[in-house]
Amino acid sequence: MGIDQGTRIVETPADVGRVVADLRRTFATGRTRSARWRIAQLAGIERLVVEREDEIAQALADDLGRDAFETWLLDGSSPRSEAAYARARVRRWMRRRLRPLSMNMMPAVGWVQHEPLGVVLIVVPWNAPVTLALNPLVAAVAAGNCAVIKPSELTPATSRLLARLVPEYLDSDAVVVVEGDGAVTQAVLAQGVDHCFFTGGTDIGRKVMAAAAPHLTPVTLELGGKSPVIVTADADLEVTARRIAWAKLLNSGQVCMAPDYLLVERAVRDELVDRLGSTFEEFRAEAPTPGVRIVNERHFDRIAGYLASTRATVALGGGADRSSLTVEPTVLVDPEVDEPLMTEEIFGPILPVLAIDTVDEAIAFVNARPKPLAAYVFTRSADTRRRVLAEVSAGGMVVNQLIYQYSAPQLPFGGVGASGTGRYTGRWGFEELSHRKAVLVKPFRPDPRFAYPPYTDRAQALLRRLFR
Predict the structure, then answer these.
(1) Can you say whether residue 141 is alpha, beta or left, with left for phi > 0 and alpha for psi between -120 and 50 degrees?
(2) 316, 284 in Cβ contact below 8 A?
(3) Cα angle, residue 364 at apex, residues 363 and 369 outer, rounded to 5°
(4) For labeling, which of 87, 143, 268, 360 is most exposed (least CB within 10 Å)?
(5) Predicted local distance difference test score (pLDDT) of residue 348
(6) In the annotation, is 196 catalytic?
(7) Residues 20 and 118 placed together within one structural domain of the fold
(8) Are residues 296 and 214 part of one domain?
(9) pLDDT below 70 — which residues of the chain?
């Protein structure tokens, strides 16, 4: 109960008001606005993931059954590179940006300056609980904000670790870890924080947006959806199969950008399915169990339910063991488009494959459904690539690879429509969590009389010409 005064970790909703008030007082001092403070916090994030790599790996092994290298790949390398990228550039990002003005504004000078928002809430999911806590935190502190981090209660070992480590590496008066369930998130939002950054499912995202609405708290929602992969007949099928299998096995398929289903030109569908099967078997040759670990019983039952109800042909896998919460990597051919497998985000190691006759059919199929967080296309054809990029709406798109888009801080990351709103990574995160204040400065003179009422006919004519 209450708050540990040494680490300022919040454990109950009853303490939330005091913690947010303390953060507001810290923000009001102005210390988070300096470049020096921001750079120090970013360096702290870098040191945290490097110096505590073994502890992070152990926590995620306890929570998700991950091996140490996959944890580094998903939850170590990205925050480190994101923080380093921002640390090297934040002084430049903070500079005012002069903007050219039209002649009717003259004499004047105009610029945009970036201001911190205040207190930012970061709601963290369970599937990549270090990366998806620290990457948004990079954006928050680079923009000069205070932050409340709320880890997922579904990864208790990682939550406890973040609660212990964050105050050791960052300013504990400005960055606080809050542990608990969804009620804690609601309690923080009820304080009217200045921004909420939520990563998770679409249904919970709607609840977060609704809870933020009474205070008009702006939200960034990084959600997910059914990310499609279009494979044309001219694709390099060996490479395509290898990259798809790697992306689907990453974190047992529990990745928001994971390939959710394949749309494959009929001429190469069977060959790609065969290659996927052999690639999955190759990648899993030294695995201790046939299946991969699912986070908890609720998600296991959901995924096992897809397998039990599908009307597709099982080309590979299909097994599930509730006692160990493991599901075999599974390739399913020709599921019905109205079954749960094809209407809900899978978020697991199941890969449905549907045959299509033309790229037009694939584009129409994707566009008839809610907009996904990511869409992928494998093709050698420049014309096909241009068509898919132009006609498919998704948060982001990748050609001939998957998931790499999240590791490019030079590009914005985020969803569209049901897959989310807002952008982050690199400068995009700095912009997302800053207020872009417009500033216009004019001298006292000249101050022509015709600009003020009562307006003569001549004055009206002049003003109409100036402001047309």
Answers:
(1) alpha
(2) no
(3) 100
(4) 360
(5) 96
(6) no
(7) yes
(8) no
(9) 1-13
- Tell whether 428 and 403 lie within a shared domain: no
- The reply to whether 27 falls in a domain is yes
Asked if the structure places residue 460 within a domain, the reply is: no
Residues 425 and 298 in one domain: no
Residue 104 sits in the same domain as residue 251: no
Same domain, 127 and 238: no
Convert the pLDDT of each residue in 95-123 to its tens digit. Answer: 999 999 999 999 999 999 999 999 999 99
| Catalytic site residue from 82, 222, 328, 432 | 222
Query: How long a stretch of residues is the chain?
Result: 468
Number of compact structural domains in the chain: 2
Pairing of strands 146-150, 9-10: unpaired
Contacts 24+ apart (CB under 8 A), 165-171: 165/48, 165/52, 165/55, 166/48, 167/6, 167/7, 167/8, 167/9, 168/48, 169/44, 169/45, 169/47, 169/48, 170/41, 170/44, 170/45, 170/48, 170/141, 171/26, 171/32, 171/37, 171/40, 171/41
pLDDT of residue 239: 98
Write down the residue that tokens 């003259």 correspond to.
106
Q: At what angle do helices 77-94 and 68-75 cross, to 10 degrees?
A: 20
Using an 8 Å Cβ cutoff, are 259 and 244 in contact? yes
Instruction: Encode 199-213: b = buried (16+ Cβ within 10 Å), e = exposed.
Output: bbbbebbebbbebbe
* pLDDT at site 7: 46
Residue with the two structure tokens 């599921």: 335
Residue 257: name the closest of 345, 378, 158, 327 by CA: 345
Give the β-pairing of 374-378 and 396-399: parallel
Q: What is the pLDDT of residue 9?
A: 55
Closest Cα partner for 52 from 150, 160, 126?
Answer: 160
Domain containing 320 — which CATH number? 3.40.309.10
pLDDT value, residue 64: 94
pLDDT reported for residue 468? 84
Give the Cα separation of 441 and 282 in Å (integer): 65
Smallest Cα–Cα separation from 188: which of 27, 33, 26, 10?
10
Say whether both 137 and 45 belong to one domain: yes
Token representation of residue 282: 């190759």
Contact 204, 237 (CB under 8 A): no
Q: Which domain holds residue 337?
A: 228-409
Which has the closest alpha carbon to 364: 372, 376, 356?
356
> What's the burial of 340, exposed, middle or buried (CB within 10 Å: 0-12/13-18/19+)?
middle
Q: Look up 256 and say whether it is catalytic.
A: yes
CA separation (Å) from 398 to 363, 381, 409? Answer: 15, 14, 15
The answer to whether the beta carbons of residues 429 and 138 sit under 8 Å apart is yes
Residue 400 lies in a domain: yes
- In 3D space, the residue among 321, 289, 324, 286 whose CA is nearest the CA of residue 307 turns out to be 321
Q: Which is catalytic among the residues 146, 256, 345, 431?
A: 256
> Are 262 and 320 part of one and the same domain?
yes
Tens digit of each residue's pLDDT (9 = 90 or more) over 224-257? 899 999 999 999 999 999 999 999 999 999 999 9
